[in-house]
Amino acid sequence: MRAWIERAAASEDPLFHAVIDRATGRVEGRQSFMRITPEHGVIEIGNILWGPAISRTRVATEALYLAARHVFDDLGYRRFEWKCHDANEPSKTAARRFGFSFEGVFRQHMWAKGANRDTAWFAMVDTDWPAIRAGFEHWLDPANFDAEGRQRSRLAAPRDV
After folding, report:
1. Dihedral of alpha carbons 14, 80, 89, 96, sign
2. Which of 84, 79, 82 is closest to 98 using CA atoms?
């Protein structure tokens, strides 16, 4: 594990980030920027691992929002990509929930774990971002959660209007 962490920490592409639950101060996941192409304003989010304490929670959603906000608002990039194994239905569902649009499947895109991998491609672009950002900000607002922390409205709802 130490060797992997040292390699990940030294890498500039992928560029790893820890996901920290502010409520506990614990590192509960990781995600990275990868395939970083500043000359074209394109970047991908990948190597996502949200542990059981934050997976499918407000923390994970906020981590993705903060990454997208950095890509578009701070870096000024034009395109933010999400790719996953085409058989990974939870990842594809998450991409859509977060506002990424499905763009297609690259058949036999890579050889992974001794087999062909078809890769599903998703992206959001800078012209999509204002509506997606508003949806995230509405969803992340504390008023969207009841006393038990359950959401009052779905993340996709503001973008569907």
Report:
1. positive
2. 82
> Strand, helix or coil at 119?
strand
- The structure tokens listed for 26 are 């614990």
Segment 20-71, tens digit of pLDDT: 999 999 999 999 999 999 999 999 999 999 999 999 899 999 999 999 999 9
55, exposed or middle or buried, with CB in 10 Å at 0-12, 13-18, 19+? Answer: middle
Alpha-carbon dihedral angle through residues 153, 46, 27, 63, given to the nearest 10 degrees: -30
Quote the tokens at residue 84. Answer: 């996953």
Neighbours of 41 (CB within 10 A): 16
Domains of the chain: 2-160 (3.40.630.30)
Angle at CA of residue 85, ends 91 and 4, nearest 5° = 85
From CA 134, how far away is CA 148, in angstroms rounded?
A: 24
Three-class DSSP category at 141: coil
CA distance 27 to 139: 23
User: What is the pTM (predicted TM-score) of this model?
Assistant: 0.90
Q: What is the pLDDT of residues 100-140, one digit of tens each?
A: 999 999 998 989 888 899 999 999 999 999 999 999 999 99
